[in-house]
TrEMBL record:
Protein's name according to its UniProt entry: ChrR family anti-sigma-E factor
Highest taxon above the source species: Bacteria
CDD domains, alphabetized: cupin_ChrR (cd20301)
Gene3D superfamilies referenced in this protein's UniProt entry, alphabetically: Anti-sigma factor, zinc-finger domain, Jelly Rolls
Signal peptide residues on this chain, from the entry's feature table: none
Length: 226
């Protein structure tokens, strides 16, 4: 990663970064934050320091003996735990990502997804979609948008984390370039618009379904199950 690529202007909140370090984010949100950390020296340093502090605190805690048979009961529960149900999508291949975005996904341990057309200038590839008890489902997907194209206005059931892998976009909260992270709570409604000469490619994690006020947006949301 070059020095220039590591300079970012928009970062996850302190609460989100702390939850990431503590392992309290869901898998989708954790991958989105990790994508930002690969491109942001500032947040990577903060996260590494917090992890070191946590290890020191754990090391100072008094040891407590395990109850008799605790280890075996834990192993039995792991073996018997059912796998979380996933929502399978099989979109036909449409186009590849740019090399930079594909490389970023590879560093995160994810393959380049198959993208499918959902609207003029908009293509989506879902990487992960899992049910969860609190929000209904958590989704991780890649979004590729042509310059000048605006997404439908929407709000959220839970948190939405967006990490820019290529290009840029702008919404009511400002402009986001490569490496930047946009964080939208459930009380935020926005309408992102892709900017610049290149396609905007983002890695997005959502908790629960997106809320689209318009008919077209609701149809797209239903089609993608996001």
């Amino acid at each position: 990663m070059t020095e220039e690529a590591m300079v970012t202007n928009r970062h996850p909140s302190a609460a989100t970064l702390a939850s990431y370090v503590a392992g309290k984010l869901g898998q989708a949100a954790g991958v989105a934050v990790a994508a930002h950390l690969l491109q942001c020296k500032r947040c990577l340093t903060v996260a590494a320091t917090a992890e070191d502090d946590g290890r020191l605190l754990i090391g100072e805690l008094p040891l407590s003996p395990l109850a008799s048979g605790a280890l075996q009961r834990t192993l039995n529960r792991i073996q018997l735990a059912p796998a979380p149900p996933s929502i399978g999508l099989s979109p036909p291949p449409v186009m590849d990502l740019c090399r930079r975005a594909a490389t970023m996904l590879g560093r995160l341990g994810w393959p380049t997804p198959q993208l499918r057309w959902v609207a003029p200038g908009v293509r989506v590839g879902v990487l992960l979609q899992e049910r969860c008890s609190r929000f209904g489902c958590e989704t991780l997907f890649v979004l590729r948008v042509k310059p000048g194209v605006a997404l439908p206005s929407h709000s959220h059931v839970g948190l939405e984390l967006t990490c820019v892998l290529e290009g840029s976009f702008a919404d009511e909260s400002g402009r986001y370039g490569i490496g930047d992270m946009a964080e939208a709570e459930d009380n935020v409604s926005h309408r992102p618009v892709a900017e610049g000469p290149a396609d905007c490619i983002c890695l997005i994690a959502t908790q629960g379904r997106l809320r689209f006020p318009g008919l077209l947006g609701r149809l797209v949301g239903t089609y993608l199950r996001i």
